């Protein structure tokens, strides 16, 4: 079953009222709400309008119409070619083929876990991804347990980023969802179309940081200390540790 997705938001002061009435996958009948234009960054759907709950909004149960996840998968080519609107969060699906090491970054004076990895689609096109926080731990755990099986990753409501003309996908704070080896007809169709080349997961090693050693006195004593004036008088090539000069 096909469906149309629309963004819906609830103000913080009304959250507790609807907390027990809304769950992922359930069907609801909603009455009395506001409809406004959908603008700005990080929009969850392509719909031109959005729904906003008010204090009089009524939510009641409804019969299950479909078990579909209503994925709106974006092709990697649409991202790389700039066709996909970067202001709209997107769903991407791919096989994890390369994964880096979990690293700790300092963001806004706080430590945050980060992991970089690469997805490929059925055409063997690659897409770089970066996930933060618990999502990074989720990828690390999944790839650590994987040996030869294909790891399929679904990122829902991912954020498209661009740096030096290279586009990638990241999580949009905690609004995103990351599912490893999801189920569903769309997922099964995708897995069957992947190249049958036996490509295994590659874990990329982090390059060790070069250790900077302080030069000792014996090292510097190898080079005579000369002035700029003396350097100008040199007739052969030789090394100097420091030079001093004074211009009037």
From TrEMBL:
Coiled coil: none annotated. Gene3D superfamilies: Nucleic acid-binding proteins. One of its GO terms (molecular function) is DNA binding. Residues 86-174 form the Replication protein A OB domain. Pfam families: DUF223, REPA_OB_2. Residues 2-60 form the Replication protein A 70 kDa DNA-binding subunit B/D first OB fold domain. It comes from the Eukaryota. PANTHER family: OS03G0429900 PROTEIN. This is DUF223 domain-containing protein. It comes from Thlaspi arvense (Field penny-cress).
